[in-house]
């Protein structure tokens, strides 16, 4: 408690530039933690829904039944489910236009799935660039506050006839707080960014693998009505 009070007291006595830097870093840190928690819950939900859809897809049921369910769950479903729906929708549209060439049907479905895949990947990467920016920029912002605070401290000490450790220490300490808060904002953001980037890469690999597997299924059904797989 005493340490916390002393830090607050140091900030109250700091120059307005250091105070502004500290307030900015605290605000960025709060936004960063909010983004981290949102991303944790979002990725957990995506994994759960993707696992459920994969179980249904490979259970041997009808592609048409899966497509009806996927269309109904367009907003609440998993990225894999929406990719599947995009491929099936294009596949069926091409067949309704009397296109019977397997390669043409497959190319159209693959293009639709690739477009849906890119949209899903962009959605998964929301806030990722923000966390990366916080992790890379925050230490430098804190360092700027520290440098400014030390310059301000030495300018004030120039007017004193006798300089002791007791007169120098508070000014230097209040300047160093900016760097400490910059690191406090940056470290969780960097850790979260690396973790989320790894999880998103794994999910992207799962989605790409599904596109290839589903393309093979569509290729087998290109010459007949897709009833099951």
From TrEMBL:
<dbReference type="GO" id="GO:0005886">
    <property type="term" value="C:plasma membrane"/>
</dbReference>
<keyword id="KW-1133">Transmembrane helix</keyword>
<comment type="subunit">
    <text>The Tol-Pal system is composed of five core proteins: the inner membrane proteins TolA, TolQ and TolR, the periplasmic protein TolB and the outer membrane protein Pal. They form a network linking the inner and outer membranes and the peptidoglycan layer.</text>
</comment>
<keyword id="KW-0997">Cell inner membrane</keyword>
<keyword id="KW-0132">Cell division</keyword>
<dbReference type="InterPro" id="IPR002898">
    <property type="entry name" value="MotA_ExbB_proton_chnl"/>
</dbReference>
<feature type="transmembrane region" description="Helical">
    <location>
        <begin position="171"/>
        <end position="193"/>
    </location>
</feature>
<dbReference type="Pfam" id="PF01618">
    <property type="entry name" value="MotA_ExbB"/>
</dbReference>
<keyword id="KW-0812">Transmembrane</keyword>
<keyword id="KW-0472">Membrane</keyword>
<protein>
    <recommendedName>
        <fullName>Tol-Pal system protein TolQ</fullName>
    </recommendedName>
</protein>
<comment type="similarity">
    <text>Belongs to the ExbB/TolQ family.</text>
</comment>
<keyword id="KW-1003">Cell membrane</keyword>
<feature type="domain" description="MotA/TolQ/ExbB proton channel">
    <location>
        <begin position="78"/>
        <end position="208"/>
    </location>
</feature>
<dbReference type="InterPro" id="IPR014163">
    <property type="entry name" value="Tol-Pal_TolQ"/>
</dbReference>
<feature type="transmembrane region" description="Helical">
    <location>
        <begin position="16"/>
        <end position="37"/>
    </location>
</feature>
<dbReference type="InterPro" id="IPR050790">
    <property type="entry name" value="ExbB/TolQ_transport"/>
</dbReference>
<comment type="function">
    <text>Part of the Tol-Pal system, which plays a role in outer membrane invagination during cell division and is important for maintaining outer membrane integrity.</text>
</comment>
<dbReference type="GO" id="GO:0051301">
    <property type="term" value="P:cell division"/>
</dbReference>
<dbReference type="GO" id="GO:0017038">
    <property type="term" value="P:protein import"/>
</dbReference>
<feature type="transmembrane region" description="Helical">
    <location>
        <begin position="128"/>
        <end position="151"/>
    </location>
</feature>
<dbReference type="GO" id="GO:0043213">
    <property type="term" value="P:bacteriocin transport"/>
</dbReference>
<keyword id="KW-0131">Cell cycle</keyword>
